[in-house]
Design brief:
- There is one protein chain.
- The chain is an all-alpha fold.
- It has one domain (33-122): Up-down Bundle (Glutathione S-transferase Yfyf (Class Pi), Chain A, domain 2), CATH 1.20.1050.
- It has five helices and no strands.
Length: 128
């Protein structure tokens, strides 16, 4: 299957679950924050949408913090494709000019992701 897709079926299921989580839970609430704060002129920003979606985005990151309680990566002890998908959103969350809760496991996870040269090269770059 390759190095990023776990052979162990439970780890693979976890990886795929976290990929679905990133797509279905994080993307819909973080995108309005990103578009309003980064891609929309100051005069046209929807500040209510930013505020509401920032709260929702922070809640999704609290779920990630919970999910990382007993593991280094989303599929277990090694980097998987699920970490690539989720890691993009984690980077965006830290790059956005918003208030966010202190989530130590998410912070440590983000720092671990940045130890991977490919993540630094392709993901951990300025968004604008």
């Amino acid at each position: 299957m390759g190095g990023l897709c776990p052979e162990d079926l439970r780890a693979r299921a976890d990886t795929e679950r976290w990929m679905d989580w990133a797509t279905a839970q994080v993307q819909p609430v973080m995108t309005p924050v990103f578009w309003n704060l980064i891609r929309t002129s100051t005069k046209k920003r929807n500040h209510v949408a930013v505020a509401e979606n920032t709260v929702a985005t922070n809640r999704t990151m609290e779920v990630l913090d919970w999910g990382l309680a007993r593991r280094l990566y989303l599929g277990g002890s090694a980097l998987t494709i699920g970490d690539i998908v989720a890691g993009v959103w984690v980077h965006r969350w830290y790059a956005l000019p918003i208030e966010r809760p202190n989530l130590p496991r998410v912070r440590a996870y983000y720092e671990r992701l940045q130890e991977h040269p490919a993540y630094r090269l392709h993901v951990s770059q300025p968004l604008w």
